[in-house]
Structures are given as C-alpha cells and as structure tokens.
C-alpha cells in the first residue's frame, strides 16, 4: 500500500503544479444571480439549465467576476493577445464531476465545461454543445469576450493613439482610421473582442463620456453610440461603466 | 354479504394486472439473481425494444419527409411534455434530435425531415421511456470535434476518452508512427488520431466484434482517413503479428467494469450497450492484464501506451504492477487524471 504513495500522478488536461484548487470566493453578484456556482464539480444555474430554448446563459456565458483576486488587477497584461493554449494554461477547468465512477459506467451526455481564469477570477462556461471538446472551445471564446468586457487597463490620455485592434472595429468614416486598417470588423468576428476591450479601456479613461471618446476616435458622438449599441454585451458593459460614473445609459 | 364482497374484490383487482403484464412483473418478487441490484435496476436486462428498420444514423439519411411547421411544433410540444423540466439534459436531447432530423434550412414550411414525424415520435419514446441511449436513437455521438456514427453493438464513446487523443499526439515522433487502437469500437479514437497523423503515420484499428468493424469502417470513410486507418478483425494483439515490435504506440479503452458491477449499471448502459465492450471480468482487470502482457512484444523501443481504466484503484494497481513486475521493459509509468480528477488512464513508455 505504501507504494501507492509513490505513484506518479499526472493530470489531463495538465494544470500548473500549484493545483490545490482554491475555492472561488463568491461575492454578491450584481445582476439577477443564479444560485452560487461551486468549482470543480458544479451545478448549473437553474436559470440556464431549466431553459428549453437555449442553454446559453443570457449574459453570454454565465460569466461572473470573482472579485478581489479579480478583474482590474490584470493591468497591462494582454490576455486577449494570448493563444488559446496560453490562455487555457491560466485557467482551471471544472466539469460536471460524475458522482459515480464515470467512464464506461455512465451515459450522460453532460459535457459542460466551466473555465476559471485564475489571474482575473473571471468564469466562463458552456453547456450547449454536444461534445466536451466543443464546449471547451465555446467556453474559451466566451472567456475572451468576458475578459474584454471586464478587464480594464489604464490608458494615458496625454499620448494616446488608438491601437489597431480598436481601429479595426470602428466604422470606415472615422478620421483616425487609416486606409491600411482594412474592412470594419463586426461583433461576430473573433477579433472583435480585443477591439471592444480597447474601446472600453478608452471609455473608462474618459470617465464614460461617449462624446470625449468619439473625439479621440475621429467619430461623431452618434456614430460611436451606434457602434456601442450594435452589440448587446458591449452596450451592457458601457452602460455599467457609465452608471458607475453617474451617467445615464445609452439607448 | 361478506363472502360476496370478498370474492368480487379480488376479481376486479386482478383484472388490470393481467391486462398489463409489465406492471404485473414489477409486482412480483425479484428473482434471486438480481438480489444485489439496486432498486433502479430491472431484474433482467431487457432485449432492445426498438429495432428501427433503418440502421443508417438519422443525420445521414436523406431529408425527404416534408412536415408542416405546425405539425413539427406540435411534435415538439408533445415530446417536451414527456420529460419534466427538472431534466434539462432531456430537453437538450430533444433539441439535438430535431437538429439531426432537420435538413439545412429548418425554417422552411413544410420542413424537410430525415425521418417521418411518426418515426421521430417513436425514437423519442424509446429514449425517454425505454431508456435507450440518445446516441443509439440518433445514431451518433459528438465526440471531440467529430460526429461519430454509433449503433447497438458498439460502445458509445465517452467524454473522458477524448483526452486520450491529446496525450497521444504529444508523444515525440507521433505524426509518422504506427499506432494500434485495440478494441476500437466505433473507431472514434482511431479516426481522431489518424486526422492528426503525418504522411507516414498509420493506425491499426482492431476489434473482435463484427458490428464494431462495420461501424468503424463507416466512420473511417466518413472522415476520409481510409489511407491512414487499417481496420483489422480480431482479438487484441492477434491480428497484429506482422507489425510486432514496430508500433510507436498502443491505445486501448478495453472493457474494464468488474463483472460483479454490471447489474448495477444505469439502464442506458446496462440494458443497451454491448456487454462485450463493458465486462472486464473479475475485478475488471482481465483484458487490461492481457494488454499489459502483450505490450512489450508489439511496441518498438521508446514506444508509448495509454489505457483507459475503471479509475483510481485499477490505475494504481496497474501502475504498480507494470513498474515492478515489468520494470525492465517500461519506464515513466503513471496514472493520469481525467477531468473529474479520477485516475482514469495509465500511460508509460517501452524501454
């Protein structure tokens, strides 16, 4: 029996050595929060699992910010510039843990995946796909969106020039957008997230003022508003940011 | 009066029982053999009630059955009403059934379906009432990025097993090696591995079951990897005599459930999946031990192996056994956790 202690145990998918899984501290959640999520073996929020039309939680992935260890402290780190593998390395993956022995014992096509991004505490999950592999990919893409929405990086307005990923999501009429930037990237493109993150960074730096941000981006206030309103998650994040500065929501 | 009422009561009491034999059977005491089974397990595994005449997986059938949108909506409502809201996975299955059944444009009216609505209705009932696995009902399982055709007689590939492919592709020299998938079943592992191989890579997909050979052939063809996967009919190493000592790696998800545990399996598994693919004999180790014994003669030096096991105890036992009894042949033998943190796999290298 003592020999069992000497067994080498690896993990698949691999996690970093410090994998004593910390229990996420769940802070009071802002919007209609489902029942608390546990890490590792987890229960899906009833709001999503009871849904018969779609399992995708309405906020686009059941993303929740873990708080203290959380969003905002990841300043200047370009998470969205990382490859999927690099990003995955920073995540703890929780799945439905079979209560029993799993494997051949079990037929349950539950292949939900829940990713917790350790540096920011952001959690993304996916359940609607038919294989775990695909759910992992969906969760990862949601994680990218949630990072874009929740991780703010400070900007120095004195010498600010909009990064190319932001220019790419601007309408062509922007006067700061050069010809070489290419066609406008829309919300369905995976490159939209980095642009959205940069836009929110800017909006944060100008205290939520759309007209100030619009000036910097060479757009009319109306044109920038339309861009923000074109994507539900971007609109929600922008309005939360504005609300925190005491501004009225964009409609 | 008393005798009259006594004599009439049993009559009315018995009649409905006679008319419904399943209920009657449930009321009888369980046969001795199943005394260890849980309350959820039926006394004896039932023969499959289904026998759909068409063995083609639903998603591969031609979409030639028009169904008016209203009829389709009515079916959806009826089907949803059969499952409680507390079973979200069944509602997901219903959605997947309909997505498999519908042609590319589901919004057209009438919708073009791959099976008549009546058939879909029967399929749904087999799943929710007969506990026939959803994957057998629709004839596929989504596994990794593949849609793997399955049917009765082959094991439905499990999500745990997806990780095996990632382990294998990380092995040095993977791409141009020769690999064996022993007990390939649906061929899921073989196809997924083959898709990652380079020009000289090969997979020998072995199975003793003729149904498995048929289904694996279909999956290999569907993914166009005939040039890389060679399906061989036979038991474990038997059909691999000509490649002895030449294999870069051996992969297997053999039957590993202890025979004693079979009666307690969930109905979807125990009633419907092939015992051949589940029953691991005494302590579930029969086939795993056979595989361990044959390994060293088929693997080339430096070759890799990965076996799926029943979890923790079995993996620990095998790691212990291989690294003591056969320490001269193998190194870096270890147990690998699955996503549920069960020691699900045993991996190692030939010296």
Task: Describe it.
The complex is a heterodimer of chains A (251) and B (351). By secondary structure, chain A is mainly α. Chain A is built from nine helices and four strands. In chain A, strands 2-3-4 form a three-stranded antiparallel sheet. In chain A, a hairpin with a 4-residue loop joins β3 and β4. In chain A, α4 (132-150) packs parallel to α6 (192-205), α6 packs parallel to α9 and α7 crosses α8. The longest helix of chain A is centred in the middle third of the chain and has 19 residues, at 132-150. The N and C termini of chain A lie far apart (67 Å). Mean pLDDT of chain A is 75; it is low at 1-8 and 14-75. Chain B has 351 residues and is of the alpha/beta class. In chain B, the strands form three sheets. A seven-stranded mixed sheet of chain B has the order 7-6-5-8-9-11-10, with helices on both faces. Helices cover 38% and strands 18% of the residues of chain B. Chain B has helices at 2-19, 21-27, 69-81, 88-101, 117-128, 134-138, 162-169, 188-194, 210-222, 267-270, 275-278, 286-298, 312-325; strands at residues 65-67, 111-113, 140-143, 146-149, 178-182, 202-207, 229-233, 247-252, 299-308, 330-337, 343-350. Chain B has 13 helices and eleven strands. Chains A and B meet through β1 and α4 of A and α4, β3, α7, α13 and β10 of B.
What overall geometry of chain A do the principal axes of the alpha carbons give?
elongated
Low-confidence stretches of chain B: 1-50
Shape of chain B: elongated
Radius of gyration of chain A, CA atoms, in whole angstroms: 20 Å
Oligomer: heterodimer
- Give a short account of the largest sheet of chain B: 7 strands, mixed
Q: What is the helix content of chain A? A: 25-40%
Average residue pLDDT of chain A: 75
Order of strands across the biggest sheet of chain A?
A: 2-3-4
Structural class of the secondary structure composition of chain A? Answer: mainly alpha
Determine the most extensive contact between two protein chains. A-B, 40 and 64 residues
The DSSP helix count of chain A reads 9
